[in-house]
Amino acid sequence: MRTFFLLTSIFISVQAYSQSKFDYPIYFAYKSAVMDTTEEIRLRFFLKNFDSITIDSVSIKGYCDDRGKKKINETLAKKRAETIFNFISSRIKHPFPSEIKSIGSLPLGGDLKIENQRTLNRRGELEIFYSMTKKKSSPSKAKTSSPPNSLIPKKALIPDTIPDIKSFLQSAKVGETIDLKIFFVGGSSELLKSSLNELQQLLQIMKENTTRKIKITGHIHRSNLKEGEDGFDYKSRNNSLSANRAKSVYTFLVNNKIERERLASEGMSSKFPKNKMPEDDRRVEIVVVN
């Protein structure tokens, strides 16, 4: 939840002119300096957080795993950093000072399996230094339908015919389920900014309906998992992705004084796909227990 609370502080209650820094990892395949589709989607969503905030400077560092010759790895690490810079340059308005560094190979270390360590070491690190001063917006034509700064792709928006949380929790019977409009970065339990309103609504309704008990279930988009397996969470660096997604909502409620005995959480892995867009499977649901 550290990332979630940081995002909350960014967009809601920080002092107007303080400068802050946000670190964000981008992962690459072995011997590759090209971002795959998943990483591009994750990064695109992340950058949306800065649509209305002033970016002061950007630093990008490139890394490789421990295999290969030093000079080759330094070149590959630099290409990875340049790939990230070129990607963000086309999506964030310039100018701002930027720095690109090639760090090269990272040694093995820690408690993770070797392949998991190498997966995490094949990365670029994006550091964004920003000030909490909003960008000046130029007059424009009235916008339609979608909320400002929403991070949910249009295809992932939930139809209006689905009941809201308040209506559901006030009338639902035991065993009934509803999707929350809470979305995550691909491959991570990191909550997207667009999830905050739904979390606040859920919190308020649980406070108003003091006898309600719910189970929070986390889901992931992955079609090739074996029975009992969960996805790898790049944020927490463990193989409990769906469980971590459910736990993030559970922790938010507990931290805001909802009694633990009224809550339960469980990771469902990819057992219940929506068979729509991947974003629809990166979700959390509520099951009414009482």
Can you characterise this structure?
By secondary structure, the chain is of the alpha/beta class. The chain has 8 helices and 8 strands. Strands 1-4-2-3 form a 4-stranded mixed beta sheet. The chain starts with a helix and ends with a strand.
What are the SSEs and their pairings?
Blueprint (H helix, E strand, L loop, with lengths): L1 H10 L7 E9 L9 H12 L4 E12 L5 H20 L8 E8 L8 H8 L1 E12 L30 H7 L5 E3 L16 H13 L5 E5 L22 H15 L7 E5 L10 H4 L2 E5 L2
Parallel strand pairs: 2-3, 6-7
Antiparallel strand pairs: 1-4, 2-4, 5-8, 6-8
Note poorly predicted spans.
1-18, 138-162
Mean pLDDT comes to 76
Quick one: CATH superfamily of the largest domain? OmpA-like domain
Radius of gyration from the alpha-carbon trace, in angstroms:
20 Å
Termini Cα gap: 27 Å
The name of the CATH topology of the largest domain is: 60s Ribosomal Protein L30, Chain: A
**Which percent range describes the beta-strand content?**
15-25%
The number of E-state strands comes to: 8
**Strand order within the widest sheet?**
1-4-2-3
Helix-and-strand structural type: alpha/beta
In which range does the helix fraction lie? 25-40%
* Individual helix count: 8
In the residues, how many domains can be counted? 2
Shape: globular
Report the top-level CATH class of the largest domain.
Alpha Beta
Order of helices and strands: HEHEHEHEHEHEHEHE
If classified by CATH, what would the architecture of the largest domain be? 2-Layer Sandwich
Biggest pleated-sheet summary: 4 strands, mixed
